[in-house]
Predict the structure.
Amino acid sequence: MLTVADLLHRYAANAAISFGSFALDAGQAILLRGGSGAGKSTLLHLLCGVLPIQAQSGTVVLAGQSLQTLSRSERDGVRPYTVGWMPQRQFLMTSLTVLENVLLPASLADHADETTQQRAMALLQSFAIADLAHLRPQTLSVGQAARASLARALVTQPKLLLADEPTAALDAVSSRLVIEQIARYVQGGGAAIIASHDPAIHALWDAVSDGNATLAEIELPTSGQSGGPK
């Protein structure tokens, strides 16, 4: 489903980060580790098409598409149906309700039909925030906003979920709900990459998954050398 080969990203000051090679299939998840500056967020931005794959900097094949051959508009088309994106900051729009925020990726693609709206409400229900659907996001707690952000990433039923620090600043209850929903998505045939500093992710995953969804780990060293699955 996802194949990364010899991926490299160069920054303006001639610094470069090598991400090496790895693959991810449906029903699998990767936990992306690394210190500040290791390139976790950069890798996620490359995989979701926000950043271009630079010339002679490796290849990324996602759901049969070679990202390095796509134009900017074609890369934008990868989201939200091939890739669901949960950014480190939730960026919920304060002018919209929680439900409208969750539906936003489908609405922008003119696919916010009744079935999608029912799916959005089901996601909010599974995250225990259905009663907040018609409120503005500024009334939510940090944990509730994170759950709404993940619901937004999943509402289009993407093939790959990219989650950047999904449990950051969350309490134990919200962290468990978030990881439980990611695990359920993977068990249902999705694939996920989770970038996180949270040392509790593995224990949470083991507690909420049924053993059918694997969670491999990739450590990105700050030295610029390539990481790889453990």
Observations:
- The chain has one domain: 2-219.
